[in-house]
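Cross-posting from the modeling subforum.

Setting up a comparison between two proteins and wanted a second pair of eyes on the formatting. Protein 1 (sequence, then structure tokens):
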Amino acid sequence: MKNELHGVLKTIYGQPVDISHTQSIGGGCINETLLLTLSNGERVFVKHNDQPPPDFFAREADALRLMGRARNGPRVPQVLGLPKEVNPRYLLLEYIEPGTPNHDFHERFARGLAGLHHMSHGFFGFDRDNYIGSTVQINKPETDPLVFFREHRLRFQQGLARKRGLLPANVDQRFDLLLNKLHLLMDLEGEKPALLHGDLWSGNYFADRYGSPCIFDPASYFGLREADLAMTELFGRLPQRFYDAYQEVFPLNPGYENRKQIFNLYHLLNHLNLFGSSYLSSVKAVVNRFV
């Protein structure tokens, strides 16, 4: 492994660089992570997977680079390099040292997220598919946000759950009813495609050593910005001042409090597909609320 990383590091720095120390930072459900201390004194963050899904790290690198272009957006780790292989097994990133949030961290985070969401495009979707966790995320471009969200988010996940035998027939049928009335539940007037982080739960943002907000591990696409906000409420919730600050700089359409559960249905279905039937009751609760 070190020999492979040496080659990437030489490409990054233009000369051979030794790895003085390797520290495992643990890993999530998909990848292992390492912190490398180099002979030149710099530190590099490495994500590693012996058998990643096709183009997994290349798609993550694309999203990080794009988010990093957002004007006044949250801090995003710079992509340093990928191995030159068909399906890279490593992603080398700038190491951002974590710190303690400043007193105005949540307000700054909200304004930064709004800055990210102001990046727009001519369609909903992305130029290629990527991943939400280890699940393929379909990003077929659509001009209608309702079509995009219904077909490439909710219906796609429903199809996966159906094939895997995770959706009982009665839940599956009610889910179809929900999809058929989605246009009555989603007020999307005036909403343009917004660049999303795409997987904005509490494990994917933090404060750097200066107390500033940082985001990482994206599942980015151009979508409806409420989807990012909704996910910050799926497994817990940020302080109310975060949501108030976002509303001040980029007001939402009325009715977000109801729509957020529908947006989070995408992630609940994905968790059902990834982790099994323990998430079925949560899926049923949302479906039953609206059907």
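Protein 2 (same layout):
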Amino acid sequence: MTPDTEILLSFGNQRAIVSPWGASLRRYFLVEADGSEMDIVWGYSGGSHKKGGQGDVLIPFPGRIAAGRYTFDGEPFQLERNDKEGPNAIHGFVRTLPWQVSRSEASCVSFDVRLEAEQYGSKGYPFSLMLQVTYGLDETGLSCSFTVQNAGTRPAPVGVGFHPYFTVGTPLIDEAETRIPAAGFLEFNDQLTPTGTILPATGTEWDCRDFRRIGEKKFNHCYVQLDRDAEGMATASLRHAGSGRVIEVTMDRSFSAIVVYTGDAIADAPRRAFAIEPMTCASDAFNHPEWGLKRLPPGEQFSGRYTIRHRIEL
């Protein structure tokens, strides 16, 4: 297996390209009647062509941990500071790991990997986890589910996130609109780590609970206090009014935060697509466990699911 290893999933006119390298989602598109392809997830092919974390899986922590430091059960830890924006840890360990294919069908695939305390203890995470990520296509769209099991002997801090970028066919994301079902967002400092304050979105330019044109706004926000429907689902959307294209990203109760990003810092392709990142906890939740950090006892599992649906508004 190499970073170029890829698997094609197919259902009806839907196609998804995924890779056991990082359990990454590399493309999701529709095949039109004339044979042309309509991208839903802005993606890539071949490991060297990835931009801005496209399609990455973020475990055991999504987002940044300030200075890579945290305390858990009274014990201090220091993670590797691997963030190009500042001296922080970012996005966990599994993005560049080879995962095993444990299930493979025409429209569904599961990837598994194990993190061992003996290996990651020196990197600031002395906890053992068994991880599984499953991608599936059906008549409703693309689903992505995860399961994390504590395979160690002590409780473990766990966060899970995903990093897909979406496009509704516009050359730049400025022409699209977004709806983000959240009443608050984290205040960030100049190193993009949270100050500890949750800012209200209500009445500000960042309130997107109704569709709002992205325009020239630079999103790099971690939204919290999610609005949910009667089934506990939270749905973030991207829309282009001109074409009627709508993408809906629906998250179950395991997800408590959504990061959205306009990709301004992506070299050669700024603002080409809009990241909607489902996260089970907010950025820096290792230092703010009240922001959704999962404390996973030995032997127990934590699971969740999000789905991507594309439709045309008439």
